[in-house]
Amino acid sequence: MLLATRPTSDRSWRPRKADLFRAAGLAITILVTSGSAWAQGDDLLRMKDGRELRGRVVSERFDRLNFSMRRGASTSIDWNDVADIDYHAPQPYSDAVALHSAGLWKDALDAFSTVREIKDLRRPLQQETLYYVALLRKQLGDLQGATDGFRELLEDFPTGRYLRQATRGLVLGLLAQGQTDDAAAVIGRVESDAKTLLSDDRLAAEVVLLHGKVAQAQGRLEEARSRFADAEANPALQPWDRADASLGVARILEATGESEAAEQRYRNIVEGDASPLVLAAAWNHLADVRLEAGRQARDASLITDALYGYLRGVVLYVPQAGDSHDEFHRALAGAAQCFEYLSQLATDPKEKALNRRRAADLRQRLERDE
User: pTM of the prediction?
Assistant: First the structure.
């Protein structure tokens, strides 16, 4: 040590103030560095009660996460108590998350593909990365890629944090591709692998809803109607999902000839809280009924009512990123048909030509989107 290099009896040598400050600064640096060696690798857990916990996320299950505190104590924390997590992560991961937050989805997907190649990436970050990859593929409209991504996430983390999202994404992706048996098999595996987690009311309700969608796709309408009714009545299901279940019941009522009951359900849906996709579907049905009545009666007012219904699916309730465009296409085609009929009924040549041109514009738009 520096002070031991000079004889203590030599009173001519005394440490100057500058030396003392430098030595003190060095000591503080050593203490802070050694004390923050853990802190530099900390995850920051923000709790809903305002607390902030520093440590390391060890694993993330569907219902809770395991967290190792700075002093070595480990604890299990319910997700309902967690507001947010800042992970101590490699810079490429942080950059990828920032790109997604900025809405640069293609760049974010490329960045997460790089993150996947990082050696010894922590398991919680592996799970987060797989989720982002599947989500980004869905947002970019890559149905097959998203389906594959959700399958990989579910296979690698069958009881993980994103169990609900992975199950839904995979089942709906398979149904969109007509693979109904595979979709049914996925639900069966989830019910087996995550059996204890089905005590979560929301997860259990969403599985019932997915059962209904599979049964409907396979033509088992009575079973589908029962599943949808059970899901709709379950308060654990989110409002948008309950509206989705009600839409399922309405479609089955319509298919089995109970048109009045179906129409009442469609009206209830458009007056309530539902996703844009569900609202577009309900408005399209109500417009179909109005359009047919107006066509038969050659009533321009009824056809105009139908037009306004279809236009809601063209302008207001458009598909969100990754959503099916089926109802959007149905709305475009319906609105075009309305303008065509209005053109036929119009007596003024200018109005007739204008409506015909509007119909042609909508059909061109439909062709571009298909």
Answer: 0.83
